[in-house]
Amino acid sequence: MTATGISLDAELNTTGRAYWAMSRMVNHGWSVLSFGLDCGGWLRLRTPAGVELPVAADPIDHTPSSQQRIQGQPSVPLLPLHACRLLHQCAHERAVAHRGDDAARTIAAMLRLGMPAGRAHSDDARCPWYLPHHGAAQPPESVRRAYWAATTLTDDYGWRITGVDARGFTAVGPYDEEEVRYRSATAADCTTSGRLTRLLAAVATDGCTADLERLILEHQHVRRNMAVARS
């Protein structure tokens, strides 16, 4: 059960979706310095290199934003912008329900505690979000979709993925004593692991299975180093 009051296996509400988007950045070494539900939703982030970046879905008063749409690419899927828009949606829902600052307090508490976000909302899981550490040189959409499914397993559920191929993947779950093989699942399997297995065929078609495996293994290595540094 998360601080949003829903199960890790349930469909995330708007507050949970905003936290999911923000926590993807945190899981890649970024820091959320502050955020707000006003002005269309905004974030102030610090990159792993220590650079502070303001991000706003609808910048006003000439406030600079590092996450403006890229010329010629009107629909670049950027997680920080998505988080900002969801924060604004939280504000709208708050006004309708007269709930005060519940969403802001909940997200702030979850960020402070480093809580797992759980399975991505179905709409978010379909989107090929840009990898925050790759800049403009992004892998294909198939790789990005599979990458975010894989890192949800590793970062939110405590899995350790050890191998990936076109037909499935191997992993050690939080309660497993040895590797388990996960093969292509049916559409009825709505779990993150089932979704990942279904995405791997498209990755293989793009000839990027080895690239995906490398990205996943590198991310897990960096996460382990981050955990050691904090301890």
Structure description:
With 231 residues, this protein is an alpha+beta fold. The protein folds into 2 domains: 14-122, no CATH class; 139-230, no CATH class. The protein has helices spanning 14-26, 79-97, 102-113, 122-125, 141-157, 192-205, 209-230; strands at residues 31-36, 42-46, 52-56, 160-165, 168-172, 180-183. A 3-stranded antiparallel beta sheet has the order 1-2-3, with helices on one face. The chain has a 3-stranded antiparallel beta sheet with strand order 4-5-6. Helix 1 runs antiparallel to helix 2 (79-97) and helix 1 (14-26) packs parallel to helix 3 (102-113). It is globular, with a radius of gyration of 18 Å.
| Main sheet record | 3 strands, antiparallel
> How many individual domains?
2
- The assigned structural class equals alpha+beta
Q: Give the strand content.
A: 5-15%
Number of distinct beta strands: 6
Low-pLDDT stretches are 1-8, 60-74
Instruction: Please state the CA-atom Rg, rounded to the nearest Å.
Output: 18 Å
Mean pLDDT across every amino acid position: 86
How would you describe the shape? globular
Order of helices and strands: HEEEHHHHEEEHH
Strand order of the largest sheet: 1-2-3
What portion of residues is helical? 40-55%
Question: How many DSSP helices?
Answer: 7
Distance between the termini: 25 Å
